[in-house]
Write a structure and sequence with these properties.
Helix content: 25-40%
Strand order of the largest sheet: 5-4-3-6-7
Number of strands: 12
Number of helices: 6
Strand content: 25-35%
Shape: globular
Distance between the termini: 62 Å
Length: 248
């Protein structure tokens, strides 16, 4: 089959197929997403509720998906991980797990924006806005240009704006962004349809990054050679993690 030499990652210069075999997973929400795919085709796909079980449940889920796909870990071309924004604990566990596979197998690490994968899953829109619970009674909103991602070679929908705001401020903030229409809202804190009717913005029930979209964005990033250095890879949080200064 035709092959493509990966560039941009000195630690991974080998020749790989154009239809790479990728393990991708995301634990940024209360749904564990695990997918094993070759190219754009998912060989095994799992979406399973796991609100407090990532510390015990992610590795068995990955093992089950690899078994279902009939893929041995050493056959994988890359490991892809949803890097947030999202759940603090879930993001740490997913990235630690990804690094374990990367170091053990000597494979590249691909970081995928969890919210961009949600946006990539939405059909028939030009813009998508992920809305997440930012705690403290606030929302996190992140807007993406989805149309250009579908039409071009970019690895993920391009972020065009983000903010943390009060729920009542979401409508005015969206209006001020002048996003390309149609616009849809996704994410666990997206308001139900009708609340933003004056802006003609609808919500869709996309509450986690679907495995198909996670695989699609991971594949594009892999073929572009957009690899993350495992030693320095960090998840993306909704808010900066708390920091307590050491006592003098």
């Amino acid at each position: 089959p035709p092959v493509l030499r990966c560039l941009g990652a000195a630690h991974y210069p080998r020749v790989v197929p154009r239809a790479p075999l990728i393990l991708a997973f995301d634990t940024s929400t209360e749904t564990a997403v695990v997918v094993v795919g070759r190219g754009t085709r998912a060989l095994a796909l799992r979406h399973e509720p796991a609100p407090r079980a990532y510390d015990e449940g992610l590795l068995p889920r990955i093992a089950a998906a690899l078994d279902e796909a009939r893929v041995r870990p050493e056959e994988l071309d890359a490991i892809a991980c949803g890097c947030g924004p999202g759940s603090f604990t879930g993001l740490r566990i997913a990235l630690a797990t990804a690094k374990g596979y990367v170091f053990a197998l000597d494979r590249p690490l691909v970081l995928v924006s969890s919210t961009a994968a949600m946006a990539a899953a939405v059909p028939g829109c030009r813009s998508a806005v992920a809305v997440l619970d930012a705690k403290r009674g606030q929302l996190f909103a992140q807007a993406f240009d989805v149309h250009r991602w579908r039409a071009g070679p970019t690895s993920a929908p391009r972020e065009v704006a983000r903010t943390i705001l009060d729920p009542a401020e979401l409508g005015p903030w969206l209006a001020a962004r002048r996003l390309a229409r149609p616009v849809v809202l996704v994410g666990g804190a997206a308001p139900s349809d009708g609340l933003l009717a004056p802006e003609r913005i609808r919500s869709l029930p996309v509450r986690f990054p679907p495995g198909s979209a996670l695989l699609a964005t991971a594949r594009r990033a892999f073929l572009a050679g957009a690899f993350a250095a495992p030693d320095g890879a960090e998840p993306e949080y909704i808010r900066p993690p708390p920091f307590n200064r050491p006592a003098d």
